Amino acid sequence: MNHKLSVLVQIDLHAQYVHLVITGCVTEANQHALHPVIARARTLIPPVTVTVDLTGAAHVEAAAVELLHAAIDQDHTFSGAGPVEVLVPAQLPGHRPVPHHGNALAGRTRARAALPGLRAA
Length: 121
Description:
This is STAS domain-containing protein. It comes from Kocuria dechangensis. By secondary structure, this protein is α/β, with parallel strands linked by helices. It has a domain at 5-87: STAS domain (Transcription Regulator spoIIAA, 2-Layer Sandwich). It has helices at residues 34-44, 62-74, and strands at 5-11, 18-26, 50-53, 59-60, 84-87. α1 (34-44) links the parallel β2 and β3. The chain is 20% helix and 21% strand.
């Protein structure tokens, strides 16, 4: 299963907000990749709240959200940095079942293309 995540950083030019829009899959195994992004976002405009928006993610694990909150709460390296707000969907989306197609070539034969100078075996 492909558990990639993507981050879009939105920064208001008038220093009003910093939003991190997360798409893809947020799992227990990959949520740690967000920690340095959040830390960097907190340094961009220190007094502004950084919003981590998980509402557009295709798949969010509850354990990942807990680990993310714990990491944010334990990060005291940025004195004077603004708070971090994590937006989570009301119901955490899970992966949709992946359709099983079986062997796509079952019951079919492949025709060989005739190339000049080659004979089919």
